[in-house]
Amino acid sequence: MKRWIVLSLAGVVALGLASQLPGCTASRGGPGAAAAQKVYVKPGEHDTYYAFLSGGHHGNVYVYGMPSCRHITTIPVFTPEPAVGYGVDEESKVMLGGFSWGDAHHPGLSETDGDYDGRWLFINDMPNARIARIDLKDFKTRQIFGPIPNLSAAHACPFPTPNTEYVFAASRFSAPVPNRYVKVEDYAKEFRGIVAGIRVDPKDGTMSMGFEILMPPFNWDLADAGKGPSHGWEFFTCYNSEMGFDSLEVKASQAEMDFVAAVDWRAAQKAVDEGKATMISGVPVLDPQQVKGIAYLIPVPKSPHGVDVNPSGEYICASGKLQADVSVYSYAKMKAAIDGGKFDGDRMGVPVLKYEDVLEATVPVGLGPLHTQFDDKGNAYTSLFLDSQIAKWKVGPPWQVVDKIDVYYSIGHLMASEGDTRHPTGEYVVALDKLSKDRYLNVGPTHPEAAQLIDLRGPKMELLYDFPTYLEPHYAQMIKAEKLKPITVYPMVENHKPGAIRTAEEARIERKGNRVDVYGLVVRTHFTPDIVRVNEGDDVYFHWTNLEQDDDIAHGFGILWSSCNMQVEPGETKTMRWKAARPGITPFYCSNFCSALHQEMQGYIEVSPRGMPVAAVQRPAPEKTAEVAALLKTE
Ligand code: RUQ
Ligand code: CUA
Fold first, then answer.
1. 468 vs 432: CA distance, rounded Å
2. Is 413 in the pocket of ligand 1 (CB under 6 A)?
3. Helix/strand/coil (H, E, C) string of 322-384?
4. Cβ contact 244:251 at 8 Å
């Protein structure tokens, strides 16, 4: 193995020299016409990949087309989006659970047999320990699960298993479990880490609590699922195995080794089924001091960040970020050591494997290795934060670096096309750079984030394109566009919303005490009803159904002098609450441009002084409903 290291080092030096040669630094000036052609998608034509970039502390997901790098849309997830009424209408407001931000790090596409299946996209909200599921049929957030009990921040999350049996979360911070008052100084005794397995319903993607495992109070960092031979395992990195609780930047870098935890999630689920868990905060929790065979620790040098399983599932790659190489572990060796009971003690009941027993190779990639992705030709690509480079290396003897490319600047994650699957396509990798510095027009002290598209198809990596993103993608995933078949309208026959109506005759305003329900229709270019009479102090619930079944015809509903606005898409029914605070006239209008007469699409709320009689049921005049019925017929 030493020989490989020497050989690889020679490779790195040779490449380093090559990049000093004149002509090889041309990429700094930007790619030329040939590269431009490779990203050019003719007007009217579509990209071949969808890329989903996490929005970081913006709390959302950005959707880009690749290879054009065009921003197509932003999916609101953990943060309200007033333009469409996300977090404003009653349903999404409940889903947001009172939070108005999230820190979304790692998108995880659902998988079948270890390949992206295009059904759902999961993403974590790190600080509030939540996971969202976006349905890729309509690109809408449909569930937010959490805050997950006992868990202080979900960073190693969600990283789905090969058949999306589970998505995982592990606590970035440790805390007492259950959380209670203790002295921070009692950290090592009282604090614990948590690994949480969240079950995913195979039919509709609904997440529910599976189990939790008590872990030593380290800072659990990132994860990846085993696949192929390692299917059934989930791997987690950690730092701060020193168990420091202050000045972590110093204290968490003392030990030579931190760990990758290997969790046998099938064994954990079985132990829960056999009643070996204790309920803590309503969750079945397994304690490795009592329940054996569910988790193991593999030593990794120097505060690792990323952990990535290669497409064949044979190797687990972890990068000590203060180290200059990637440690590659063999799943077969790990299994043999576990089966042979070869342990080097334990940490709080979790057996520690011996580094030499599990290590397959170390690959000297360069400084600050963070994350690794893969192609279809047996190569791996590791991002180097400190060197601002990507290193390409061969998975397998002689474990050598074969190419490097500069990125601008300070790369965190990188994402390869279908890069987390059993069948990466090997076409592109996107560098997700932490700093953009001088790459774009100056917009003041907050610079955009920098992403860069790199072509993997040639013998050498080639930088094709720079594109700025808004705050702040950490990780991303890229899926073949042909795998997604999003709908363009919601079929009215599938609309079972309680507030939905289907004909103009059903439009009405009903009053029960102080609550007023408006059952209405939005159809080009009219609100039915467009005059709403209520009393001062009423709680008004507007249920608007967009009866249209035409592509791209959404209507808006915005109320003056309020935070109430939402969008209602074709075939959809949405409900929004508005308080009639004081007597007077309040106009409302369609806020989403829908037709030539969009500007005419408006109405009035007439609020009478408290106590003035208002009819219990109001219906639009018959000639109005006839007008709308005629409109619908011409639909
Ligand atoms: S993390 S680079 Cu969640 Cu790697 Cu940010
Ligand atoms: Cu409806 Cu604009």
1. 10
2. yes
3. CCCCEEEEEHHHHHHHHHCCCEEEEECCEEEECHHHHEEEEECCCCCEEEEEECCCCEEEEEE
4. yes
Examine the pLDDT at 7 and tell me if it is beyond 60.
Answer: no
20 has pLDDT over 50: no
Average pLDDT over residues 394-414: 97
Give yes or no for a contact between 319 and 363, defined as CB atoms under 8 angstroms apart: no
Ligand 2 first shell, C-beta below 6 A: 525, 555, 590, 592-594, 598, 601
Tens-place pLDDT, residues 28-52: 556 788 999 999 999 999 999 999 9
Q: Which atom of ligand 2 is nearest to the CA of 593?
A: 2
Atom of ligand 1 nearest to the CA of 413: 2
Rounded average pLDDT over 216-244: 97
CA dist 613 and 514 (Å) reads 12
Tell me the pTM: 0.94
Residue nearest to atom 5 of ligand 1 (CA): 474
Task: Supply the DSSP string of 147-195, one letter for each residue.
Answer: PPTT-EEE-S-----TTSSEEEEEEEE-EESS-----GGGHHHHEEEEE
Please name the residues in contact with 361: beta carbons below 8 A apart, sequence gap of 6 or more. Answer: 1, 4, 328, 397, 399
The CA 567 to ligand 2 mean position distance, Å, reads 10
User: Relative to the CA of 595, which ligand 2 atom is closest?
Assistant: 2
Residue nearest to atom 1 of ligand 1 (CA): 474
State the Cα torsion 596-599-601-603 to the nearest 10°.
-170
